[in-house]
Amino acid sequence: MFSVSAPLLKFSNAPLPRMVPARQKFPLPEIADPAGCLRQRLAALDLPEDMQHKRVAVAVGSRGITDLFLLVRELVHFLLSKGASPFILPAMGSHGGATAEGQAEILASYGLTAQALGVPVVSSMHVTVIGHARGLPVYCDAAAWGADAIVPVNRIKPHTQFRAPIESGLLKMLAIGLGKDKGAALIHGHGIPGLVDLIPAFAELFLHSGKILFGVGVVENARHRAARIEALLPASMPAEEARLLREARELLPRLPVQSLDMLILDRIGKDISGPGMDSSVTGRIMANGIPDPPTPRIGLLAGLDLTEDSHGNAVGVGLADFISQRLANKIDLRATYINAIVGGFPVQGKLPMIMPNDRELLNAAAVLTGATPLHQAAIIHADSTLNLEKILISEALLQRDMDGIEITGPAAPPQFDENNNLIPIEKL
């Protein structure tokens, strides 16, 4: 892990803003029984009659899906009931440090082990070229391609760095996830145009190969609960994924304002967003040749901790202005650098300023807010860009028009623990 101690800084203690607890109201469609819903979707599929002893690769990614274990277990039971011989494999590009062991570890962190599921887990970085699209080789995990069929399982959601009819979902898993580090590097090496154009082109080769049995797509609401679960056959997958992406975009959590002096996030991480934090919330992509979105506009951005499910991969940390020492202590530079390089966004692997504790972080921020004293600044403190329902807002924001906001308590000074670190939102 990374080990650099934050320098001792001597900024005076700044007057801090009083923070007001608030709750945002988002549309929250939710499936009460995700496994039961998937069971119904699978039963309705028109599948081949003879699946006896067919080896089926169930491709699972590194994106956080709240009900992932339940859904994969249900899927495995379904395939076994058809007489098939399923096995699990990671389809996550270069994640997990681009090693077979690292990717298997990510699956295990979600409970996806051979012992828990009763079927093998096959993790390898070995790929094979399955054809060509747009004059480029298309890679696939060799074990997956050697199986009789492939079933991808993924969350369908907006991508953080581009807008297109197809973004993050089943087709991206086919084109990039199953391509391992070679496939991911090839597509990402063509920049945003590569993501927009090559994902559908590469995925089309998979869909027309006869290898894809079906796919399981999940759309989550702002509380990270399943809002829709669909089992999609190859012929309908592109159109249905585009429809589900539009639905997912409507359910995204967002900030209640379009500009802030400072955004404080308790957690960043790969399970939260590809670059650790969603650019639709932070307003930051910071990639050469790619303009940042016009809104939201965030003056200063601070990340305080790294999620355990990131396994040290802190890609996206370079989008922040400040991070805490405790976040820095969890960074696996190898995993972070590989993801940033293969992903084609080197700035996301850079290190921001490291602060010894959150009080010193706020003192440094007070110097940078310029003409606006920190205690009068527009600040939001949130758990993460994926969890924006419960937030703290500074008193300055009470003067703004904020739709869908419910004030849930009185204003109070920021709360710190014995180490001068802010109490996380989820513990307030």
Per DSSP, what share of the residues sits in E-state strands of 2 or more residues? 15-25%
Sketch the topology as an H/E string, one letter per element. Answer: EHEHEHHEEHEHHHEEHEHEEHHEHEEE
Mean pLDDT: 92
Instruction: Supply the CATH architecture of the largest domain.
Output: 3-Layer(aba) Sandwich
Give the CATH class of the largest domain: Alpha Beta
Poorly predicted runs are: none
Features of the shown structure:
Rossmann fold, five-stranded mixed sheet, alpha/beta, 428 residues, 2 domains, eight-stranded mixed sheet, 15 strands
Descriptive report:
The protein is an alpha/beta fold and 428 residues long. The chain folds into 2 domains: 182 residues, no CATH class; 218 residues, Rossmann fold, CATH 3.40.50. 29% of the residues lie in helices and 21% in strands. The chain is built from 13 helices and 15 strands. The strands form 3 sheets. Strands 12-11-10-9-13-14-1-15 form an 8-stranded mixed β-sheet. The chain has a 5-stranded mixed β-sheet with strand order 3-2-6-7-8, with helices on both faces. The model has no long low-confidence stretch (mean pLDDT 92).
Question: Any chance you could write out the topology, listing elements then pairs?
Answer:
Blueprint: E1 19-24, H1 34-43, E2 55-60, H2 68-81, E3 85-90, H3 100-109, H4 114-117, E4 127-133, E5 136-141, H5 142-146, E6 149-155, H6 170-177, H7 180-188, H8 191-207, E7 215-220, E8 226-232, H9 237-251, E9 259-265, H10 279-282, E10 297-303, E11 322-324, H11 325-328, H12 333-343, E12 353-355, H13 358-368, E13 379-384, E14 387-394, E15 405-407
Helix pairs in contact: 1-2, 6-8
